[in-house]
Give the backbone structure.
Amino acid sequence: MKIALIEDELHLNEAIKLLLELENFNVESFKNIREFLRESDNDYDIIIADISLPDGNFLQELSKHKKIGEETKIIIMSAHGELDNIKKAFDLGAEDFIKKPFEPEEIILRVKKLFKTKKTKLTENIYYDPESKTILTPNSKEILTKKEAMLLELLIKHRGRFVSFDTIAATIWDEPVSSNTIAALIKRLRQKIKNKNLITSKREIGYMLI
């Protein structure tokens, strides 16, 4: 998971960045809005931002670039915890609001909560997001193809039970296909999950998500 951190207080910026990286999150930190807009690649899963920054107000910036709030989860942190600010933050698409001062470790708890929201837990640190059709780990994101997502969702639905080759073929291809075709799709899915033991197989029976 990739995170953008926008905070002008150097010590707080460094403390939050370090704690997130210790949890294996990929973090890019910025000290103002201009730096974020100029240097970021905008491919973030979460943006953590202070409202009052040296070169402007982050909520005002969000109102100009509403697409940011639509495509990325946002956590706002601010010493200005008035109800108007909180309401505006949520109206602009923020997922969470943290009032300063706070312990930096609190950010970790909030981020982990967002990371798990509406996700299917595959292992302790691997999740599947059915909305974006992606496999998420703390430091990576793998986008699934349509067939890969259909296969994973079928295995999740029947988790702990073997799904037959015929059921897989009928669900994904709507016609009979060879076992080699199914095996090739399983192989690609295992590679993206990065845990080859998560999907097990039994000859002439099918596949199971354990």
Summary: The chain has a mean pLDDT of 88. The first strand starts at residue 2 and ends at 6. The two ends are 24 Å apart (CA to CA). The CA atoms of residues 150 and 172 lie 6 Å apart.
